[in-house]
Amino acid sequence: MNDMDNDDAACELVQEYALDASPEKVWRALSIPELRAQWLPGTEHAEPLSEVPPQALSLRLREAEPPFLESTVDLKISPAADGGTLLRIVHVLTDARAQPAREVANDGGFLMYAT
């Protein structure tokens, strides 16, 4: 793994839930903005990027207050063995302003002066 992979992982949040509801019901709660706002507040600035009914939904989010950072949220639905639903949420901060500063290649702590 290189440094870039570490930086990417630092800006990603993965959550998984086992829900006591059918995949169809979970899809409705995710795909209808008015229903989604009831359990996921702050999504009034959500822009749908893609959807594969009733399995996946991808959204671009923008914060409502400064600094208005942008991120993407991928929601994946799969049936659980018990009749419920497995929901996987991957939230990735995509705004370049929030990315960690990259270290320069020759940052060994030594400073050279020209004489």
Description:
The chain has 115 residues and is of the alpha+beta class. The chain contains 3 helices and 5 strands, in the order αβααββββ. A 5-stranded antiparallel β-sheet has the order 1-5-4-3-2. A hairpin with a 5-residue loop joins β4 and β5. The protein is globular. Mean pLDDT is 81; it is low at 1-7. InterPro entries: START-like_dom_sf. This is SRPBCC domain-containing protein.
How would you concisely characterize the structure shown here?
The protein has about 120 residues and is α+β, with helices and mostly antiparallel strands. It is about 20% helix and about 35% strand. It contains 3 helices and 5 strands, in the order H-E-H-H-E-E-E-E.
Total number of domains: 1
**Total count of strands:** 5
SSE class = alpha+beta
Uncertain stretches of 5 or more adjacent residues: 1-7
Q: What's the number of helices?
A: 3
Quick tags:
21% helix; 5 strands; alpha+beta; SRPBCC domain-containing protein; 5-stranded antiparallel sheet; 3 helices; START-like_dom_sf; Alpha-D-Glucose-1,6-Bisphosphate, Chain A, domain 4; 115 residues
Topology of this structure?
Blueprint: H1 3-10, E1 12-19, H2 23-31, H3 33-39, E2 47-52, E3 56-62, E4 70-79, E5 85-93
Antiparallel strand pairs: 1-5, 2-3, 3-4, 4-5
Helix pairs in contact: 2-3
Organism: Comamonas thiooxydans
Protein name: SRPBCC domain-containing protein
